Amino acid sequence: MDNGGKKTVEFLIETQGELQKVAWPTKYELVGSTVVVLVSVVVIGIFVLGVDWFVSIIMGYIGVL
């Protein structure tokens, strides 16, 4: 095996070792985090929608739109 092949094998072995050290979330933690992200996206989306609507109304009153 050439030097590049040895480095690749070494990299893959080290990667496997590092992945075994990772503290993977439980199913409960994963579902909880997903819910938090989805709720945050919806709340921020509604906020941006409201700001856009408000700015559109203001721009309409001053004649820009």
Residue ranges: pLDDT <50 for 5 or more in a row? none
Q: Describe the largest sheet.
A: none
> Tell me, what's the shape?
elongated
Global Rg: 25 Å
| Total strands | 0
Protein name: Protein translocase subunit SecE
Subcellular location: Cell membrane; Membrane
Transmembrane segments: 35-64
Membrane topology: Single-pass membrane protein
Features:
mainly alpha; 2 helices; 65 residues; elongated
Overview of this structure, please?
The chain is an all-alpha fold and 65 residues long. The chain has a domain of 42 residues. 85% of the residues lie in helices and 0% in strands. It is built from two helices and no strands. The longest helix is centred in the last third of the chain and has 36 residues. It is elongated. Its main location: membrane. Keywords: Cell membrane, Membrane, Protein transport, Translocation, Transmembrane, Transmembrane helix, Transport. It comes from Candidatus Brocadia carolinensis. It is a single-pass membrane protein. Essential subunit of the Sec protein translocation channel SecYEG. Clamps together the 2 halves of SecY. May contact the channel plug during translocation.
Topology (elements, then pairings):
Layout: H1 3-21, H2 27-62
Quick overview of this protein structure:
This protein is an all-alpha fold.
